[in-house]
Design brief:
This protein is of the alpha/beta class. The protein has one domain: Rossmann fold (3-Layer(aba) Sandwich). Helices cover 50% and strands 15% of the residues. Strands 3-2-1-4-5 form a 5-stranded parallel β-sheet, with helices on both faces. α1 links the parallel β1 and β2. α3 runs parallel beside α4. The longest helix is centred in the last third of the chain and has 25 residues. The chain is globular. It starts with a strand and ends in an 8-residue tail after the last helix. 31% of the residues are buried.
Length: 157
């Protein structure tokens, strides 16, 4: 049986690291994201397939999952590495910035989980949602570490 994964947000830092690790283990990959050039570059490096998609668009995400099933027969797992982080105090955020962040972070997660659940309902599989360290340790700690040490912390503070 072929082990295959769909990775949304494949070319970002977390997404590309995950893709490289899965490819190294011999998995077949369908890489997804909005930037076709960055997808193509990573796909060429890993010998993977691409499917450009806006992960906040339910129809596009469903189409991507259907493409994965057509390519590989079944999908072993799906990872959502899509995310947005605004390092800005709440009182300085515009409503548009807030809405865009919520759409990116929450609607993409919903779209991926929904489409993956439908696609893998019969045979099963794994769904993984990833986030940044900010989700665990908070933005103020990230900023302080960046200011004091010139880097982001690698472990919880």
């Amino acid at each position: 049986m072929t082990v295959s994964y769909v990775v949304f947000g494949a070319y970002g830092g977390v997404g590309s690291a995950l893709c490289r690790r899965l490819a190294k283990k011999g998995a077949k990959l369908l890489l997804s994201g909005r930037d076709e050039a960055r997808l193509a570059s990573l796909a060429a490096e890993l010998g993977a397939q691409t499917f450009p998609v806006d992960a906040t668009n339910l129809r596009q995400v469903e189409s991507c999952m259907k493409q994965a099933a057509e390519l590989y027969g079944q999908v072993s797992g799906v990872a959502n590495c899509v995310g947005s982080l605004l390092l800005k105090p709440a009182h300085l955020l515009s409503e548009e910035e807030w809405d865009a962040t919520i759409t990116t972070n929450l609607k993409s997660a919903f779209a991926v989980v929904r489409a993956a659940t439908i696609a893998m309902a019969q045979q099963g599989g794994s769904i993984v949602l990833l986030s940044t360290a900010a989700a665990r340790i908070g933005v103020s700690i990230l900023r302080q570490s960046r200011r004091l040490y010139g880097c982001w912390p690698l472990k919880g503070a």
